[in-house]
Amino acid sequence: MSDSMTTDVIVCTTCRPAGASRELPADGELLFEAVQTAQLDDDAGAWAQVRVRGVACLSSCGRACSVAFQAPGKYTFVFGDLKPDEETARHVLECGAMHARASDGMLQRNERPARLKSGIVARLPPWGVNPTG
C-alpha cells in the first residue's frame, strides 16, 4: 500500500480529563488500546489503509481525549473531547478510512461518524499548499 493511500491515526496516549487521577490509566491510553483492538478485529479489511500510532502528547490537554488524522498532501484534522470506548474506537477507524479515501483528506461534517461530527480542535492545510477560502 502506498503512503498516498494510507492515513495515520495518531492517538494521544497521555490525554486525561482535568482532575483525573494520575493513579489510573490515562483515557488516551485506553482509547489507543481500544482503537488497536478494533483494528485487529477488522476481518473485512475496511480499515487496512489506516495506520494507528500512539504519541505521548498532542498538546490538546484541555480537549482530552484527542486524535489526529494525517497523510502526505492532505488536510490534517485533530479532534478532542472523545470518549475512550469501543464505539469511539470504531468511529475513529471509520474516519481514518474516510481520510485515506479522500484525495485531499477533507472530512465533511455530515459524512463523519457520530462521535466525530464535533470536537474539532484544528484543521491544518497540507504542507506547502496555499488554501483558498
TrEMBL record:
<dbReference type="Pfam" id="PF07845">
    <property type="entry name" value="DUF1636"/>
</dbReference>
<dbReference type="InterPro" id="IPR012863">
    <property type="entry name" value="DUF1636"/>
</dbReference>
<protein>
    <submittedName>
        <fullName>Putative metal-binding protein</fullName>
    </submittedName>
</protein>
